[in-house]
Amino acid sequence: MDYGDLKPPNLYESCVLRKAKQQYMDKTLGVEGNDPIHSIISLKHEVEHSGSIHNIGCDSFYIHYWLPIQEHIIKSKLYNSRKTICVDATGSLVLPITRTKNKIQSAYIFLYKVITEVDGKTIPISQQLSKK
Question: Whole-model pTM?
Fold first, then answer.
């Protein structure tokens, strides 16, 4: 610590804390390696996420996923009625994926949500991550 510094030298920088948190969460969730596509594929085949992740595409990246409770809502509440759905997308949540040995990044990845109104409440019924 130099004279006049406001913070003591034993405090970590925010980037160090962020990386430590990421490593802890990866270890807790069982994420191995740095390839997000293979991590998602392995999540699809685990018991905990069985039936939630439905389609995964690697070249032209996309993932379709919904929970069993969302599927139940669609079948029980929306199947025989005319409901309006809304699709919303945001591109600010997911970073582009580095795909090749040449460090070429993918296009922006968007999170799409399909929502509808059931019993006066707005609920999501499906989600998709896609670069288109």
Answer: 0.63
